[in-house]
Each structure stands twice: as C-alpha cells, then as structure tokens.
Here is the input.
Amino acid sequence: MNRLSQLNNSIARLVVIISCVSLSLVVLIIAANVIGRAFNKPIPGGYDLSILCAAVSGSLAIAYTTRQCGHVSVDILADILPPALKKAQKMITHLFALVIFVVLAWQGAIVFAERFHSELTETLRIPYWPFRLIWLISMCCSVLFCITQFILAASGGEE
Here is the structure.
C-alpha cells in the first residue's frame, strides 16, 4: 500500500504543478490581451489559448481535489455514527466516487476516439484532441485515487 500511496503522491504533485502553470498562463494571456487591446493590438487567438489552458487547469484540478478528498461533502450524520458504520459510509462514498469517475473516464475515452480528427479551435485551428486526452488522463488519475481511498477505508487506514 505504501508504494501505491507514493505513486499517488507523485502523480498528485505533477498534476497540481501542471494545473498551476496552466492557470498562470490563463492569467498572463488574459492580462496581455487586455493590455494589447488598449493599444489596439490584442493577442490573435487569445480567447482560444485561454480557454484551452483553463481546460487543462480545470481537468487536472479535479484529479488533485480527488486525491486530497476535497470534493464537497456533508458530514452531519457521519460525525455521530459509530466507528463500524462510519467505516461502511466511507467505503460506500469512495465506491460511489469511483463509479462516477470510471463513467467519466469511459465516456471521455469514447468522445476522444469519436472526435479525434474532427474538432479544431475557432481562431487558431488548434486540435482539441490533446486537451481531451488530458481530461481522460485526469479522470484515470481520479479513478486510481478513488481505488486507493476505497482500499484505505476498507482496511481502516488513513492516508
């Protein structure tokens, strides 16, 4: 289990770094575009670039949030449950999240395959497939994280 946790930590670190860099690029592109518009020299395709960078950042942020168990949860009842029921509740919650991310990865793979050559951005004509692939990788990372969290919940361990 320790190797899996180390792998998860390494993946999470890489995911959050790429997401932060991508989000920083969004900010820089938008700021440069705003300043450029003031001088009547906007960045050609600035909208396309900012949307694509935001898609990368958002996709990878989902995986990182999954790793950190940071998705929205309501634990009004969970706090008063006895330990055995709390363990079962955690397992069910992680299993439910796992099913959701498996479906998202599966459907992402279908869309990726169906639209591999057919979609380009409006202005710069950049293909969408690398960004769909990032979404798919992000969902696969989330699946891995959910599996690890389910195993930890089943064994009674905390990460």
